[in-house]
Amino acid sequence: MVRAAAPRRSSRDDIPVARRSRPPQRVRRSGSGLFLACCFVFGGSLAAVLFGPSLVSRFTPSVSGVEGIAERPTEDGRLLGHFPYPEADQSALVEISPGLMLQVDAAEALRSMRRAAAADGIDLRLLSGYRSHSLQKGIFFDVKSARNQTASERAKVSAPPGYSEHSTGLAVDLGDGDDPGTNLSQSFESTPAFRWLQDHAAAYHFTLSFPIGNIQGVSYEPWHWRFEGSSDALRLFEPARRLAQTR
Ligand SMILES: [Zn+2]
């Protein structure tokens, strides 16, 4: 279940700056070596100037905020309380139930967790998994409009596009199959499924993202859990975990 993610490294991990920053070898041996070193440094700097901005916007979608939202991200990258998240690498997603995709490690962990829950008489249902940025955009703005909410009111209950844990393919919304009336409602906390999750989810590397009174200022979401059982997942959720620990 916990696997090093080496075979599926995403392209965002491949940062050429790291290669360019490696010191050139045998610089002082000859004039031609020095010349090559200068070319190396100059070329690297030029590439950084030419490609730097596109790398920044690609890796940190938060820097310019979100179209349609007047608020700007805070120093730690958060927009209206939510941290920025990249879209999952499509090749790392698998369909876990009809129409619902998850990153493969999270899917495997969820399958094991559901089996264990079923053995205890709990019908754990997956209600939502991976969401693309464009789907999140619809969920944020369409519902905001339908409910006549401001962006900050909407952000209490839904992440702006580019800022949802769901876009990583590592977050799930879970329900109790025996009590579907509590789906995506705070009343889910009174179900046997939620109590089972409180006792067992950590064993499968699932963590409640937005507990009561969370420091991110997001509404309590007993149904929303994120998977932290891989090195990629730990890295992605490190800022959120660090912030939660400051409480
Ligand atoms: Zn959710």
Supply database-style keywords:
6 strands, 2 domains, Muramoyl-pentapeptide Carboxypeptidase, domain 2, globular, 247 residues
Structural class: alpha+beta
Report how far the terminal alpha carbons are from each other.
Answer: 30 Å
The number of domains: 2
CATH architecture of the largest domain: 2-Layer Sandwich
Description:
The chain is of the alpha+beta class and 247 residues long. The protein has two domains: 6-59, no CATH class; 90-245, Muramoyl-pentapeptide Carboxypeptidase, domain 2 (2-Layer Sandwich), CATH 3.30.1380. Helices cover 38% and strands 11% of the residues. The chain is built from seven helices and six strands, in the order ααββαβααβαββα. A four-stranded antiparallel β-sheet has the order 3-4-6-5. A two-stranded antiparallel ribbon has the order 1-2. A hairpin with a 2-residue loop joins strand 1 (93-97) and strand 2. Helix 4 (133-146) crosses helix 5 (151-157). Residues 128, 166, 171, 173, 224 line the site of zinc ion.
